[in-house]
Amino acid sequence: MLSALSVRPPAGDEFDGDCRLMRQPQVVDLFHQRFEELWAAVDPWNGERNVLAERVLRMLAAGLQDEQIAAQLGITPRAVRRHVAKAMADAGAETRFQLGVLYADRYRARSHPGNSGVRHP
C-alpha cells in the first residue's frame, strides 16, 4: 500500500522544481485510485476486440502454438497469426513472447481487481 506521493503544482502555476509531499492516507488513496483508473483507460486490452481474438490471446498466453490454437478454434494458422500480429501492434509488443507475458499479466490484474498488474521492486 502506498504511504506517500509527490505532486507537482497544477498546470498554469510556475513550476520551480518543487513538489508537494502528500502523506494523508485519504489523499494518497484517492490519487492511487485515480491513477489505476487512468492506467486502465490506456491499457491496449481494454480496446474493442472480438471474442475470437480474445480466445487466441488467452491460448497464446497459455503457451499454445499457432497450429494448436487454430485446431481448437476451427480457424487457420494464418488467421491465428493475423490476430497475434494485430494484438502485437496494439500492445506495442516486439515479440510473441512479450505479447503473451503482457496479456497474461493484464489478464491476471483484471481477474484480481486489487492487483494492478504493476510489479514493485
Automatic annotation (TrEMBL):
Taxonomy, superkingdom: Bacteria
SUPFAM superfamilies the UniProt entry points to: C-terminal effector domain of the bipartite response regulators
Listed Gene3D superfamilies: Winged helix-like DNA-binding domain superfamily/Winged helix DNA-binding domain (1.10.10.10)
Domain HTH luxR-type: start-end pairs: 49-103
Protein name: HTH luxR-type domain-containing protein
Organism of derivation: Gryllotalpicola daejeonensis
